[in-house]
Amino acid sequence: MTQQTTEDVIPFRQAVRAWFLISLQTFGGPAGQIAVMQRSLVEEKRWIGQQRFNHALNYCMLLPGPEAQQLAIYVGWLLNGTRGGLVAGTLFVLPGMLALLALSVVYVLWQDTTVVTALFAGIAPAVLAIVAQAVIRVAKRSLTHPVFVAVAVAAFLALALFGVPFPIVIAVAALIGWTVSKVAPHALAKGNGHGGDGGPAPLIPDDALHHAQPSLRSAGKILAVGLVAWWLPVAAVALLLGTDSVFTTQGLFFSGTALVTFGGAYAVLAFVAQRAVETYAWLTPGEMVRGLALAETTPGPLIMVVQFVAFLGAYRDPGALTPWAGALLGALLTTWVTFVPCFLFIFLGAPYVERLRHNTAISAALTGITAAVVGVIANLALYFAEHTLFSRTVPWDWGPFSIQLPETGTISPAALVITVAALLMTFVLKWPMLRILGICGLLGLATVLL
User: Using an 8 Å Cβ cutoff, are 387 and 411 in contact?
Assistant: First the structure.
């Protein structure tokens, strides 16, 4: 193995320019974002080897939070040390944060107009098609053995019928993956896709050792700084605005969400939607779907939708602040507590992970988690379908089962037609996501005009 002896593998300014250009292309969810980094960093610039890139991605998928942003932080850390990770992770979310903040303002100002209502009526079915596509993509990648198909089905039933807490579903899935690696390791065997392409050697080759030496002392410093940065704003709003304010509640809730967001935004949105809509009443189910539609149209991680949730919740209950000041504070605080932990997880764990390249326990747990994520996303698709196609749902209880069933008489013919069109554009025509969202928005306008 070769030894990587310097923090700056490439000039820092060159890296900043590269991460800025990547941040402007991060549409299409984690799959699209990872593909952009793969093409730019691995294939075009040859800054990092394919196996090294995949190893970093595997670690990030094991973590709570948006794996694509964490991958950017990890690769930025490999290329330029701590400052490289900070710049890569910040630029990855900054354009989307600013864009979604502007769209949130537009939504609050003009949500009741006919044009905006019609646009969202068309965009919501497109989101349903996008979520359905996510279920299939993750399933193809992760359900490589019948036992993992069973894990996916069990995760869906546990969430949809029994209301099992999301963290428990993920923990059990990881345990099942680890168990399978012990009793039936052949079930985990699959190609790694690391084959070389005959191009020039990358600046960070697959067998290079990173210069950072993990130690308890450095880990303690990172943990202390990270925890202070993470929790100081939450403590400040609790002290200045009260522990019962919406800002303290949002800071605590989304800090907790940041610890259980395994499998990307789709996997945790059902949990967020349930609490934000039913428990805290920050927004309606329809607005949750619209928020995801807005997040889909902006660059950056889809989990940025929590900023929209917090914006509306704080705008409607600003306490001692004005509605707009409250909305801005809630949005920025939620964004902070959602993404700061990502930096902490990477800076804390990456030096150790660099020395665990082929750990079978990590890979096995990851396989179990990704299998469960299929069921989790399917549950989210069901939630969106109910609130997109039907105007009302009714509770249905039978023994331990308790679910919401749509009232068949409240189905929207226009939403049904647009959903079918979105599914055709997604799965048959295979059009880009932004084109589908745009056409569905126009279809929504047409239903009002006609």
Answer: no
Residues 6+ apart with CB under 8 A from 226: 340, 341, 343, 344, 347, 348
Please state, in angstroms and rounded to a whole number, the distance separating the CA atoms of residues 142 and 149: 9
Domain extent for 278: 96-190+211-449
Whether 25 maps to a domain, the answer reads no
Task: Say if CB 79 and CB 68 are below 8 A apart.
Answer: no
Q: Under 8 Å CB-to-CB from 295, ≥6 apart: which residues? A: 96, 100, 265, 302, 304, 305, 308
Residue 51 falls inside a structural domain: no
Tally of domains within the chain: 1
Residue 100 domain-assigned? yes
- Determine phi and psi for 358, rounding to 5 degrees: -120, 40
In tens, the pLDDT along 238-282 reads 999 999 999 999 999 999 988 877 656 666 777 888 889 888 999
Nearest to 384 by CA among 111, 127, 116: 127
In a domain, 173, yes or no: yes
pTM of the model: 0.73
Number of C-beta neighbours around residue 283 at 10 A = 21
φ, ψ (nearest 5 deg) of residue 52: -65, -40
CA dist 324 and 311 (Å) reads 9
CA distance 352 to 176: 24
**13-17 contacts at long range (C-beta below 8 A, 24 or more positions apart):** 15/76, 15/79, 15/80, 15/84, 15/87, 15/88, 16/87, 16/91
pLDDT in tens, 24-36: 877 656 766 887 8
